[in-house]
Design brief:
23% strand, 11 strands, 6-stranded mixed beta sheet, alpha/beta
Length: 188
């Protein structure tokens, strides 16, 4: 059996993500949102780090708006490209506090009132992935930002991947030492 390389799998799934009809993507994203709402980790969480969906990923913008309406504090990653790492920044408004950052991904604006969220304050981290296997290992976009970030999180911080059904595969290429699985994956 041929197990595709990370690059082959990444290309295949990214093509599927980009080919989805927008209405279908949003409808499936709402199914996933509904599952997230019911998770005890979400209900307990006061502070949640989301990701800003792009390029066909599970939509997180409506999730962020609703989490804010529920009184939760939310954050988004800010990319420090030179340092090859990301930091969580508090966001008060999905409409007003974001700008397009590196790689074309929305991220918090760098302004004077920026508030970095200490890792210990994150009660839940929502994690993107190109693909996930049945053991919650993830294949990212290849830059390693999330793997480095997940290694820094305090032990026991719940991490939840969001994926469409076609992003779940039986086998990912063997994980590397720095690859960090998520606690669970929610699928439409």
């Amino acid at each position: 059996m041929h197990i595709p390389t990370k690059q082959e799998l990444r290309q295949k799934v990214l093509t599927l993500l980009r080919k989805q009809k927008e209405e279908e993507r949003l409808a499936k994203s709402l199914v996933i949102w509904d599952k997230l709402l019911k998770k005890p980790e979400f209900k307990r969480a006061l502070t949640i780090l989301f990701y800003a969906a792009f390029d066909g990923e599970v939509d997180t913008f409506e999730m962020m708006r609703r989490a804010l309406q529920l009184g939760k504090r939310i954050g988004l990653p800010y990319i420090l490209r030179r340092e090859k790492r990301m930091i969580p920044i508090a966001v008060r408004s999905v409409e007003e506090d974001l700008e397009t950052g590196h790689y074309g991904v929305k991220q918090p604006k760098r302004t004077t009132h920026v508030r970095t969220l200490p890792l210990e304050e994150l009660d839940l981290v929502i994690v993107p992935g190109v693909a996930f296997d049945r053991h919650n290992h993830r294949l990212g976009r290849g830059q390693g930002y999330y793997d480095r970030f997940l290694q820094e999180l305090p032990r026991g911080t719940p991490t939840v991947g969001l994926a469409f059904d076609f992003q779940i595969v039986d086998h990912l290429p063997p994980p590397e030492e720095h690859d960090v699985p998520v606690s669970s994956v929610l699928v439409n």
